[in-house]
Amino acid sequence: MKNIPIIKPFFNKKEETSVCRVLRSGWVTQGTKVAEFEKRFCEFIDAKYAIAVSSCTTALHLALIVNQIDRDDEVILPSLTFIATANVVLYCGAKPVFVDIDWRTFNIDSDKIENSISPNTKAIIVVHQMGLPADMDRIYKIAEKHKLKVIEDAACAIGSKYKGRFIGADSTLACFSFHPRKLLTMGEGGMITTNNKKYEKYIRLLRHQGMSVSDIKRHSSNKVIFEKYNIVGYNYRLTDLQAAIGIEQLNKLQEIIEKRIRLAQRYNEKFKNKDYLITPFVPEYAYTNYQSYCVYIKSKKNKTRNGLMNYLMSKHISTRRGIMCIHREKPYIEISKNCNLKNSEYASDNSIILPLYHQMKKEEQDYIIRSIEEYFE
């Protein structure tokens, strides 16, 4: 069996053709293709506004800025997530406050949020981990009660739904990623959706150095226009080259999601009676895109999660540990020394992400399943 990766981007001739058109146009930076991608993204998600940026990290940073998160403020978030979710809080000079997860969903435990709220708390960053929506109704109620802002880290959640509505459709601010491990990818890139016009206008200024007039408007004008810079902004732009890929990816996103769900369900069926493995839990309110297929491993005798990962590597099967715990990383150890995050640590230490991608063949999936069975049985 050839090497089986954890994920493969799903590209074809359409992406290639679209990029070539942009190259030949001579306009490769943020322009009409970015605007088209934003419009199409809004239509897909059913959000009022979508603003394309260079990554989900920059999207989260801008979301904090427009919410006026500043030095000495506190922001609640899970530790069980990619480190960028906490890094952006430090970018603002604020303090991340880690809250434990519900071990079944890998998402922040809404029952534990209020105990971490202090007079300095200004916002909650909710992560829809591995594409599984968090319990948003409960979280928004807590935020309203304590007058907190809510930002959704939807890096993995494009196409996932909460109570029948796409993540990002009803969000104050939702931030998406287009990294190669995501369902929709263009190498890098991000998107912010919002239904708040004030946020939308401010984010558009911030992402392009605070420039008062867009490049497209200046270059297409029949008279000279001089831009102004009334605020300090950032270079967080997406390019037309990336947007051209994103548009084609968006066209086949639903197909990608449906295939991933079928593959995940096949894993579930094959693993359901295995006493050494717990398959993913999906609450009734959630429709997940299965951005990752993550299972818990129950160690037995000398058979462990790490042992399984090494065994699968020897069989040319790529895996990843479950999600990292930020509070274990050097920049955050002192910040989080009094936190009780036992569920997060258990999840990180005992779960494994298995290969799942659109092009996966039945024989590849069978080989993965059989290899896991061989290791334990």
Folded structure, characterized:
With 377 residues, the protein is of the alpha/beta class. It contains twelve helices and 16 strands. The chain has helices spanning 13-25, 32-45, 56-66, 84-91, 136-146, 197-207, 215-220, 240-251, 253-271, 305-314, 342-350, 362-376, and strands at 49-53, 74-78, 95-99, 101-102, 107-108, 121-127, 149-153, 161-162, 165-166, 174-177, 190-194, 277-278, 286-287, 293-297, 320-321, 351-354. The protein has a seven-stranded mixed beta sheet with strand order 1-11-10-7-6-2-3, with helices on both faces. Strands 12-14-16-15 form a four-stranded antiparallel beta sheet. A hairpin with a 2-residue loop joins strand 8 and strand 9 (165-166). Helix 1 (13-25) packs antiparallel against helix 8 (240-251), helix 2 (32-45) runs parallel beside helix 8 (240-251) and helix 3 (56-66) crosses helix 4 (84-91). The protein is globular. The two termini are 21 Å apart. The mean pLDDT is 95.
Annotation keywords:
four-stranded antiparallel beta sheet, 377 residues, 12 helices, single chain, alpha/beta, 16 strands, seven-stranded mixed beta sheet, 16% strand, globular
Structure annotation, total helices: 12
The biggest beta sheet reads:
7 strands, mixed
Global outline: globular
Instruction: Please indicate the percent range of residues in DSSP E strands (runs of 2 or more).
Output: 15-25%
Which stretches of 5+ consecutive residues score pLDDT under 50?
none
Mean pLDDT: 95
The sequence of SSEs as H and E is HHEHEHEEEEHEEEEEHHHHEEEHEHEH
| Oligomeric composition of the shown chains | single chain
The portion of residues assigned to helices is 25-40%
- Count the beta strands: 16
Distance between the termini: 21 Å
The chain-level structural class is alpha/beta
The Cα radius of gyration reads 21 Å
The spatial strand order of the largest sheet comes to 1-11-10-7-6-2-3
